[in-house]
Amino acid sequence: MPACAAINCTKRQIQGCGKTFHLFPFSRPDVLQKWVVNVKRDKWKPSKKSVLCSDHFDDSCFDRTGQTTRLRENSLPTIFDFPTHLQKDERKRKPPKPRSFPQEALVNLQEPLDNTPSTSIITSPSKLAATTGADHTYAVTASPRSVKRKLDSVHDNLCSVKKKLKLTQQKSRRCRRKVKSLTTVVQALSDEQLLSENGADQLAKTFSDVPSGIMERMLQNKKSGKVTRKTYPPALRAFASPICSSSRP
């Protein structure tokens, strides 16, 4: 005679006991695991002949339409008589204490409005925040949405400024490299005595685009392997005129 496997249950499957006994669902491992957990027997594993009596199931778990009472699919045992140390502590939480508002948060309107009796009105949360935080510089009275929009605008402006700064730094580096290259060209012309005594100063002061013009013509000559016959620009002609006039006897 199989006996119920539940703790503190002595029901046995005998004729006339008025109970139904149900085997553990080994064919459904997920449901079997839930049965074992609900039984709460430490270090115990059910066997193929282990059963639970009908006292541990709710009435909605049974199918009594046929001649044999059956358990519905995925039914779980939930009714047990556990000892004290296995019972779940169902103590209810204490309700929260009512919060007390300062007297400044309550505004009593004593003046009648349109011949209506005077009423006592409690300020809204936004007005309450503005009233209680008016004396503090760190109080934020704006809504979170408007603060978020301002933050996004500031972030976009910051990204734009960073981008402009990066472009300016790149232009500055290119200009420094160009000045260094032109300085080298002027120094080479001075070493080869292709400039007068004050020619270098004139290149650096008066004729700002002369070094670049000279360098471009020198690069073209180097690439083509012959002297170019291209007309000199006006700046180079104006620069060469005082040099040629000073070199004449």
Supply the key terms.
two-stranded antiparallel ribbon; 41% helix; mainly alpha; 6 helices; single chain; 249 residues; rod-shaped
Q: In one word, what is the shape?
A: rod-shaped
Output the radius of gyration.
49 Å
Low-confidence stretches: 108-123
Global mean pLDDT: 75
> Helix- and strand-based class?
mainly alpha
Strand/helix succession = EHEEEEEHHHHH
* Order of the strands making up the biggest sheet: 1-2
Helix percent band: 40-55%
Distance between the termini: 141 Å
The main pleated sheet reads as:
2 strands, antiparallel
Strand content: 5-15%
Please give the number of β-strands.
6
How many helical stretches?
Answer: 6
What would you say this structure looks like, in words?
The protein is mainly alpha-helical and 249 residues long. The protein is built from six helices and six strands, in the order βαβββββααααα. The strands form three sheets. A two-stranded antiparallel sheet has the order 1-2. Strands 3-4 form a two-stranded antiparallel sheet. It has a two-stranded antiparallel ribbon with strand order 5-6. A hairpin with a 6-residue loop joins strand 3 (62-63) and strand 4 (70-71). The termini are far apart.
